[in-house]
Amino acid sequence: MTARRLVGRFLFYLLVAAIVVYTVFPFYWAIVSSLKEGSALYKVEAIPPHPAWGNYVAVFRQQSFARNILNSVVVSAAVVAVSLLLSVTASYAPGRVEFRGRSLLLLTILAVSMFPQVAVLSGMFELVSWLGLYDTLSSLIVSYLILTLPFTTWVLTTFVRELPRELEEAALVDGARPWTVITRVFMPLMWPALATTGLLAFIAAWNELMFAITFTLSDRRRTVPVAIALISGASQFELPWGRVMAASVIVTVPVVVLVLIFQRRIVSGLTAGAVKG
After folding, report:
1. Is 70 exceeded by the pLDDT of residue 12?
2. Which spans in the chain are helix H?
3. Per-residue pLDDT tens for 55-94?
4. Any idea which fold 64-230 has?
5. In degrees rounded to 5, what are phi and psi of residue 155?
6. Distances in Å between the alpha carbon of 192 and those of 87, 185, 262, 277?
7. 88, 95, 98, 196 from 184: Cα distances, Å
8. Residue ranges per structural domain of the chain
9. ∠ CA 203-126-84 to the nearest 5 degrees?
10. Which residues of 61-82 are buried (b: 16+ CB within 10 A; e: fewer)?
């Protein structure tokens, strides 16, 4: 192996190590900070000598954090289910049917996802109030679809477009209707794309704060981002960073576990259609 190749490989691994440290260090430091309290939070220590596990206990004891986690699970799961159901059916027409204005329709769907949340906040508030959904989990499910549905529809349309037409034609010849083609022929092939878009939609709903803090009022309806944002100390000017970091670690772990479980399908979904044979 030449010296040039050795240097190139060394620089490559050095870059990979730098990226890993850059991405993993914030989560590591959150764990370390969650095990500290008081003045120990301002000391730089790789491992706390006296871990303050009480921060994790206080998160559940001093507020209804378990209820907030359940709310986030219910809302995120419902958003994923509705987004995938609607986007799978919506992606069939622009992905497989030739009609005038198809490109304009796809660009419109993509443009909807580019609007900042604050631009539609007042309109969504009026809609939620008119439907009588204020301070309910349904208000969050309805509002989160604005964030997830355009993205999932766009990604699944790209995936559906790459599926072999022979499968669809064979099903239509056998008398299958479009709904049967979607559910019996396409969906078994779309699991990598469904896992990818579903997980990204789950993360978006799980971490959303602006709609959640606007459309919910009571503590029993709040999701975890709002619960973390409203953690307060003994006084107005004191913020218990140990409890804040403990709560952040608790709500981050489920997302990390989901990514580890579906990592193969996520990679397959993200690379689907990237190379044409």
Report:
1. yes
2. 3-34, 54-61, 65-96, 102-112, 117-131, 137-161, 165-173, 178-180, 191-207, 210-215, 224-229, 241-261, 263-271
3. 888 888 878 888 999 999 999 999 999 999 898 888 888 8
4. MetI-like fold (1.10.3720)
5. -65, -45
6. 15, 15, 9, 18
7. 12, 17, 22, 20
8. 64-230
9. 30
10. eebebeebbebbeebbebbbeb
CB 146 within 8 A of CB 124: yes
187 within 8 A of 87, measured Cβ to Cβ: no
The predicted model scores a pTM of: 0.81
Number of Cα atoms under 13 Å in the Cβ half of residue 169: 4
Residue 218: both structure tokens together:
């009571």
For residue 146, what are its two tokens? 């604005």
Amino acid residing at 216: T
**How far, CA to CA in Å, does 118 sit from each of 100, 124, 135, 209, 260?**
33, 10, 19, 12, 33
What is the mean predicted confidence (pLDDT) over 35-62?
Answer: 81
Per-residue pLDDT, averaged over 7-12, amounts to 85
The pLDDT assigned to 266 comes to 67
260 to each of 178, 199, 263, 264, how far by Cα in Å?
34, 11, 5, 8
- Token readout for 34 is 């969650």
What is the C-alpha separation between 232 and 238, in angstroms, rounded? 7
Joined together, the tokens standing for residue 62 give 């001093």
pLDDT of residue 217 exceeding 90, the answer is: no
Site of tokens 């477009």 = 161
Is residue 234's pLDDT more than 70? no
